[in-house]
Hints:
CATH superfamily of the largest domain: Mur-like, catalytic domain
CATH topology of the largest domain: UDP-N-acetylmuramoyl-L-alanine:D-glutamate ligase
Oligomer: single chain
CATH class of the largest domain: Alpha Beta
Number of strands: 17
Strand content: 15-25%
Radius of gyration: 21 Å
Number of domains: 2
Distance between the termini: 31 Å
Helix content: 25-40%
Structural class: alpha/beta
Amino acid sequence: MNISTPLQSDDLLTWLNYWGHVHVTGIDLGLERVIPVAEKLKVTRPKAKVITVAGTNGKGSTTTTIAAILQQAGYKVGLYQSPHIYHFNERVKVSGKEAEDQTLIDAFVQVDQARRECGLSLSFFEATTLAAFQIFEQQQCDVWVLEVGLGGRLDVVNVIDPDLAVITNIGLDHVDWLGDTIEKIAFEKAGIIRPQIPVIFAGNQDLPQAIQTKAQQEQAPLYVVNRDYFYQDHEDGSWSFASPAMTIKLPRGNLALENLSTAVAAVLLSGLNVSDQHIREGVAKAKIAGRFEVREIQGKTVVFDAGHNPHGVEFLLKQLQKFMQCNKQYTDVVAVFSMLADKDIHSVVQLLKPVVSEWKIAEMTVPRAAKLTQLQEALQGTHTQQLTNVAEAFQIALEQVQSHQLILVCGSFHTLEAVWEYIG
């Protein structure tokens, strides 16, 4: 497909469409093409402190909380996350504010010029990540908080050497790219570890050998949850973080405790000047769209959750159980559901089946979307209604649900995005 190069005066959508077609594949792991372009842009050695977060789940919540705490401490923080849920600008934030369209376009112009001078193509993810780095560099951020997109070792984020590496957990996800065992995936995630920098492993599982080996090879001090730091929930709505150096009582916040505690551990190991009060304020303020996000729409209660693998859905179900215990008028859940074809659809459905009484399903309009036949196969024996698109599925759910039912929109970031487009 031939697509003409956009101009600086073109809109953001034109540029995003362009980056979607420059390279032959959407996902192409490896740094050979990226490094020369990053070096041309002079973004590979930022003066800023860099915290890189990899893992299967919890990266978004962890990076959001790290950024929130550091902003409370007065640092200018560049936060890079992916994918977005509602609109692209969410991926790039400076001091909590999403990048404006023109800021992104200006960075895209520079990235495109650099890749042409290098005679290289870039995937959508590579180009947009380099644009984020360009923005953080130009806006002279004090700290860069970077969420790894896929894996770690070969992900474009890994062109930057971090000062602190965080691995949230390891699950069987993206097995086509990362490998089909926990150890193979752990090896990829461990690729963000650098010589003698602190490394946090926050998984609620045994420490994978691949991470331990890499940390030893790099002489990187390794901090492991429930060994080197701890967290505990309290009945009064607070929780505690504890390490050999300190104990601090904190507000419950809006995100999962395991991710809040990882963020606190990261901030304390970063060497940055942060007080207990900054930590409390940051934890209280940290929020992320699409992570058990409850909204009232046309008088109906809707829960949006982007969980798209078994680990993410297990956490969603814990949150849902708590919510329904506190809001006893809801006895029934209607799901607006779709997933990507390369995800573990069967396992996700098996987890949700005991809770969901009705399913509204549709194919998404993205290249990796699961076909209706795939969704139907996983949902055999359930009360399922098949619709032409996700927006229609949501519209029908809104029209049909009764006062004792809540709507759960889940299965993929793209499912949420389709519903948001319909609402907005």
